[in-house]
């Protein structure tokens, strides 16, 4: 065992026993969203926006103290962000890509203007790319690095928060994405030299972090939190063992300076997964506290048993992340306390924390006044989770008996939930238990291809991904219907007129396979959640997705079944209007799970199976009603891939299995499509193959068909539609541009397999650019076909 440098300091501080890793930033009523969007529109000044942000931060701190976090000692995290925490780190490091030099000049010294320019781009600049944060549905702004990317500590925002908190009588803890995770999430800029990796600049970046920490210490911060979720992921550019070495190197430097003057005490966190293999080594670093996610992860049993863990943590505190920051269920307090107590009893200075930042859950269950009271009693949003952390901390400090009443109340909630009607539905379970492998297989590909000839689909067939622009009129009609201002008949009439318009438009444009346009859907998951049994929807349960965008995930609380058809009326109406095939449109089981809060009392695989059976019945009904092509979207297939390599095979097995269960009841004549809207699917290409869909559409335009080569090499034999129109921007791609992309694809993939379509749905686009782009798309397909 190497010497533990912090063990040598007898006065090593500890955090109060109750803390959380972060809190929702957008505000209880999405105040920050409104304030930022008003500022973007020019309806308010930067000073007004800063005032709103300051008030929100102050209210958050006060609320956290009210809920039970101590005001002193660094328990309250400063997790505010105007847009994204990775982007905040970019600003704090001064790592503004050269291509934004013009935007920096325009910003005239305003960090906020620079931040928004990076996040959103402007007329001259493409914004930073956005991508999903670990295995969540939150998106961060991807840093861009090359050999010359500037670096200069800019601690202003962090220091301001510490100062504000002190003025409020609260000793808070600034939070920053750690240097190793930051660089592992960065990408090489377009100007980077051959072979450059952002990680090549780790030592320089660590030096800037050291400056930031010094500024925080000077401002009076006693603690800083550095988040290193890279420690739990096998999906990064370097293997996990290497990540640990990089963390050791970075924190030897960061922790190696004098605590108090050169830096605050450091809390190093490892949220979103299992760090058990690394935990003992992290304890030996010169940091004052280490956090472990003990919801997704586990305790290192052998190191705990043989005392290695306790030795490593002599002088280092361990924050046990036992309250789940990813879901909305009340915690099994007795089990959580037992886990933390094992660490405590092993002689480790133990604190209670959340598994990860609470940014992934809504604010407060108390706001959900419309929710069924019994269901509500089972739930815990961010505020309730903070209270649970405080209870557990009391139990850890004062002994189980001190919180026996709270533990008993939690036991009663769990028992009530387990016994409640609908949580287990005998018929649903019996049907799921009877599923056989035969239910997951369709006939051989060639046989299906033959049977589908009757569809008369041309080579390079043109189609769209499903949604057409969600216009203001559509939103207004939906809102009026929800408020009861128009009745069901009026609303249905409106939607039918909309469908007819979209069908006629597609015929005019000349698309081969049509869609009904999805005007009836508020959201591709919530729409189904509202129609399936076993789900509930919230009123205020907003969770940040990126920037000012938030989603309201549904709550999947019970066994899932389908009381009635969900999409048949719309799809069959659309089909009745045209001779061309109209695709039925469903959201797949994995995506429905990924974008909802799911029950935690059974494996995800079992829940997916129930959703799949409901979708299987829907497909039967669609086909019965005359639909011959059904698309089942699975855009979240990649997102739910476990960070832990050991868990990936099992995941791919059940996720692919649930898709096949949903789709394999379809006769050979029925063409099954799927859609995945990202291009980095190298890792899951076998899974995509395993879905066995007749046609798969994917994102490809932004990467200029990068995905096509791996597909060609893989010998992918079914239909594939690599997007030729980037729907993320209002820009209209020309005929030539789209034809060029089709040709790139056609060079690797036989024409009869190739489909021509946009990257994703068109719901966020306007009609003008949509019609122009699709007209060009059809023309591009014709040009290439004729060549
Ligand atoms: C995020 S994937 C979206 C697929 C859906 N069918 C749409 O077109 O909007
Ligand atoms: Zn998509």
From TrEMBL:
Domain Cobalamin-independent methionine synthase MetE N-terminal: 19-344
Residues spanning the signal sequence: none
Superkingdom per UniProt: Bacteria
Keyword presence, DNA damage: no
One GO term (biological process): methylation
Region of interest (Disordered), ranges: 430-453
Protein name: 5-methyltetrahydropteroyltriglutamate--homocysteine S-methyltransferase
Organism: Leucobacter chromiireducens subsp. solipictus
